[in-house]
Amino acid sequence: MPNLQEIRENGTLANIVEGQLQHIGIAILMTFGALALLTKGSNDPTLLGLTSHSWATVSIFLALLHQIIVALVFRLQLYRGLMTRLFGDRDMRIWAVIFLPLLVARPISLILTGWADTGALSGFRAGELVIGGLLVAVAIWAMHSVLVYFTIPRALGGDHFRDSYAAMPMVDQGAFRYTANAMYGIVFLGLWGIALLFGSWNALVVALFQHAYIWVHMYCTEKPDMDRIYGSP
Q: What is the tally of structural domains in the chain?
């Protein structure tokens, strides 16, 4: 397994931009598709000054902003050590200050989307509540596994910053016992649950966008990075 110093010494511009043309292309198509699926009326109520359609649009663009920033920081840190050169030992703390508010904004903006939406999603409200509650409960369990077993520093991309994180063993406890990527595979189900609890079509569209887009990040950015950090399979 190469160390970060070796990766930075041998990294090229091609390594930095690998997968990002695909990322941009898919993001554009997904954004236009999601925006086209949102509904709005001329007399929709507002919440904190925005309609459900407006909150959904905000949520979609916050997700785009979040993942574009993550892609830039991950690549520039992995191949150029940018955050470490700028902030020294405070690099991961500074990165957490940037990353975590954008992460928290995603479910909050989704909640506001659903809260402002007065339309009905289906004629099976009881079913929406039961399924939504179950999905949120499963997501909370998986998030607990992330916090306790995987830890926040690793979730922030610690293996892009320190060799010590890359040397840690794979997590196989809690939700990670069932899937190697409990964060994207299970935690993001909570977004679907929130949309169903509110019975909101616009929130459901946002949940679909956010969950699909995190997998775009996985395959266009994280997968090439992991191949480089841990050695190609």
A: 1
